[in-house]
Amino acid sequence: MRRVLLLPLVAWAKCRTEGGPRRWPAAALDRTRFYAWVSCKDAPLLTHFLDWYLGLGLQLTKPGWARVVLHCLDKKDRRASLQVLEARDVHRNVHHNDGPFSAVIKTKDANVYLASLPRDALLVRADLDELFDAAPATIEAALREDGGFVRGRFVDRISGDWRLAPVAANRSLGAQFPRRCAATHAVFGGNDRKWILVPRIFGNRSVVFKTSHNVYDAPLVKRTSDVMHYRFDQRAFGLLRDKRDAYASREDVQSAFAATMYDGMLGAFAEGSDGVAFRPAARKAIAYALDAQSSCLCGGDVFEAPRGAVYAATGGADYVDLAMLSASQLGRDARVRFFVEEDTMRYCADRAKALRRATWACSVVDASSLAADGVVAPPAVSLKWKRLAGGWTEKVRRGVEGRIAGILAMLASPFEETLFLDADTVPCFDLERLFRATEGAEGTSIFEAYDFLMAHEFHTLRGFLGEEAHGAPDVFGLLNAGVALYRWRDAVRRFLMKWLELYVDDLERKLADPRAYDPGDGRAFQRQPAMQWAAFRSAARDGLRVHALSPVWNARSWRPAFSGHAKRTTSDDCCAAHKFTSTTILVDHHCNASRLPACGARGSLDTAGLDVIGDVRHARPRLGCPGRAH
């Protein structure tokens, strides 16, 4: 069985940028000017910033060869930053700005400076948290082949313990932030590409910045160099919050999008007694972004346990009980995470404690804001979801939010290998035995070949599915996500995010046509069609390796075949073998749970009082069970 990869921090010492800056060739330095707009709130980071670019050989001390705009609102901050600048003799190229600023204002100022330079000049434009690390040979090739353009890609540097740590001026930044990650674009949806170096003139035309990252009419440059990005230090959380508030106060479309993006980023962090740190789901998404496996890994020590089960139990305390009824069949030592709404979080934790299940835990999922333990939804999806609020009846809204909570719970699973179960499933074997079914001979695993496994729907037997296939080829079949087995990798994250996006798109389309889709009919807003297309698309384009589980892993729609009944029924006892073929069911679904262990019986939910009457979908406490108020 494959276990969690724990990478020691010493592994990051092999990364190139643990050394100092590499001096650029003289042919470039003789032409290169420098521009930066920096906040004076972080003098320690400014120390590293200036030392780095001076180490590259840039002439920051030569009058007119640099423009450093120092933005300050506090005199104390200004003094600390000026001391750093004066100590390096850069203060003569400092220009002060104490007024409001924006990305547009900064770009305009950079363009004015660029236009003032000689025609053969080159310009480096850097933000305070960006240390460019292009090799000297790359700079030489850019001068020779690319007109002086050098393209960079962010490598996000994060502390070893995932906290937003303060920057120390007297210690290597690489040692303080050893994790090398791809968070800016892959997880947070930001632009992680930037021009490190641009010429004043290209093709007899003046080069003009479009944004801090891009210029107009740039050439196609395929090679990229590292930009060490120290965005995630102690000041980051406050800056993100300030930016979110600033954009939220405006009413234009661009500001609404930016505010939503920053809301998502803020959701990736949690404030605690020891500061601010990345939430678990954000750590997992960042560590496995782009499936970048190398000696410079972001770090694989991001899982609570190698294996576990996950439930989304939203809709009130009864649904928490329903999920716990299911989880009780997985064995007393099974690791289980329940994602519940905030108002049932205390109930969930108390029930797990009463049941004496030390390996059960509860986390909050908020479908209304697409949030779960650090999951960051794309801003466009979040905006669209907000606009849909109130478009349906209360009953349908709860159903839709419950389906979305399931997707978010899959994204937020704290386990490397996860068994996701609908709350109304009934596992017929313990979790260890179910996961043992994923193992092969000589330590092999199904997850070496496949990432995500779901059982086919019974309707797949119709063969030619037509519109029911939801756009995927008929031969792909119809999958059901009520039971899913998967091992985390970035392709899984992209699939789940695509599923969320397509489901919100589908909801928007249907609500726009109330004549065809009744807003009061919950069946019209199922998530299966979006999942079907997302799974096929991810397999076809993003490298997701999808495999079909046997129907015995999700007996919901296969009951007719298993039971001999003409149609699906809940009259069969949960986990009962096929009466004619003795088929062994591994996970039952939509069955009669009344014969599960009763209150006080061995293997039941003990004195906590959870028992069922009839259909597992309607499992409720039986009157007379001790330890539960009725």
Reported CATH architecture of the largest domain? Alpha-Beta Complex
Give the helix level as a range of percent: 25-40%
Number of helical regions: 17
Low-confidence stretches are: 1-17, 598-630
Percentage of residues in strands: 15-25%
Largest sheet: 9 strands, mixed
Write down how many β-strands occur, each being a DSSP E stretch of 2 or more residues: 23
| Gyration radius from CA atoms, angstroms | 28 Å
**N-end to C-end Cα span:** 45 Å
The chain-level mean pLDDT equals 84
Helix/strand/pairing class, anyone?
alpha/beta
The coarse silhouette is elongated
CATH topology of the largest domain: Spore Coat Polysaccharide Biosynthesis Protein SpsA, Chain A
CATH classification, class level of the largest domain: Alpha Beta
